[in-house]
Amino acid sequence: MKIVVTGGAGFIGSNFVQYEVNRYPEDEIINLDLLTYAGNLESVAPVADKKNYRFVRGDIADRAFVFDFFEKEKPDIVINFAAESHVDRSITDPEVFVRTNVVGTTTLLDACRTYGIKRYHQVSTDEVYGDLPLDRPDLFFTEETPLHTSSPYSSAKAAADLFVQAYHRTYGLPVTISRCSNNYGPYHFPEKLIPLVISRALNNEEVPVYGEGKNVRDWLYVTDHCSAIDLVVRKGRVGEVYNIGGHNERSNLEVVQTILRALNKPESLIHFVKDRPGHDLRYAMDPTKIETELGWKPEYTFDTGIPVTIDWYLNHRDWWEHIVSGEYQKYFEKMY
Ligand code: NAD
Ligand code: DAU
């Protein structure tokens, strides 16, 4: 089968490309990525020379390019990871989020219905459900929870999900959607909380914690997200949404303290800064459907995944140091 993975040079996409290329030598994996600030071909270097892998640079929101690409490649499966993914960037510059996350998705959907595909899979997020209160640990997001977004990022992701569902109902396109909680692990761009804390603490730099650090996220090791998507694409029911999460809720302060302890760094590095506008309080996924229907089980807990992640950053200093010293640094200074 010919599988197009969009956004395969980003954090989760690059982990997924490596997962698929190694696991399915009989399939052909095409990584279609624009290489924005978040795209990095070093993240797919371990599979770059494999016979069943190819990279194509292109913009999913460029209709002429996408239709030419489909005409030439005629993919069997499209898995759409490509997105603008950082909430803080969506607050300062929402427009590109509409372009890539909404227009990009509908452009792919139009190409899929024009050329025909066996499956279109949309990689979505728990953020489309909004947030849960901090004082109701009994509440979780299910697939039936109404969409109720907070940021320009989550609004654009929710709009994309609705288009995917509309193309299924109106045109009969064979689609699936997965909605996952916060990922962490190798190749995570150091603007996001966990790699930001690891990289800054290793350089003995202050670590910014928004507000009082009480907001809660539900953390999943990235390869567990990859195995879940693989299952949904190959075995999930067409037209369905599957929530993905591993019940690993931690407050941001707990996350930061855990990392500082593991690195033997002092808590005096913690610097409480102005809160994110509209900051979602708590995310927590109920993954019962994917567990019972598809037999998915995560391999890592937060306590086992964090040491593995820290080791990866210690052993791959080159990967993140050149990001931190480049364009990202200018962005970081503008934000803080
Ligand atoms: P990322 O920002 O690390 O990577 C995004 C990739 O998309 C980059 O390689 C970038 O170059 C590419 N891209 C951006 N615009 C493009 C365009 N117009 N055309 C083609 N490629 C383009 O993102 P990520 O954290 O790996 O997230 C991947 C997907 O998973 C996103 O759809 C995101 O909404 C979703 N998601 C992320 C998380 C998380 O915790 N990071 C959790 C749940 C869902
Ligand atoms: O829940 C899934 C989402 O997780 C994905 O859809 C997004 O693409 C992904 O970026 C992530 O969004 P978050 O906003 O939760 O991740 P981020 O790493 O930006 O922030 C995690 C938490 O840490 C959040 O509550 C904000 C806080 N934070 C973040 C940064 C960057 C800080 O306190 N300090 C920081 O410097």
TrEMBL record:
NAD(P)-binding domain segment(s): 5-306
Keyword check for Transmembrane helix: no
InterPro entries with a match to the protein in the record: dTDP_Gluc_deHydtase, NAD(P)-bd_dom, NAD(P)-bd_dom_sf
Required co-factors: NAD(+)
Keyword terms, alphabetized: Lyase, NAD
EC numbers on record: 4.2.1.46
Molecular function GO terms recorded: dTDP-glucose 4,6-dehydratase activity
Single Gene Ontology BP annotation: nucleotide-sugar metabolic process
Catalysed reactions, as listed in the record: dTDP-alpha-D-glucose = dTDP-4-dehydro-6-deoxy-alpha-D-glucose + H2O
Alphabetized PANTHER family for the sequence: DTDP-D-GLUCOSE 4,6-DEHYDRATASE-RELATED (PTHR43000)
Family of this protein: Belongs to the NAD(P)-dependent epimerase/dehydratase family. dTDP-glucose dehydratase subfamily.
Name under which the protein is recorded: dTDP-glucose 4,6-dehydratase
UniProt organism field: Stomatobaculum longum
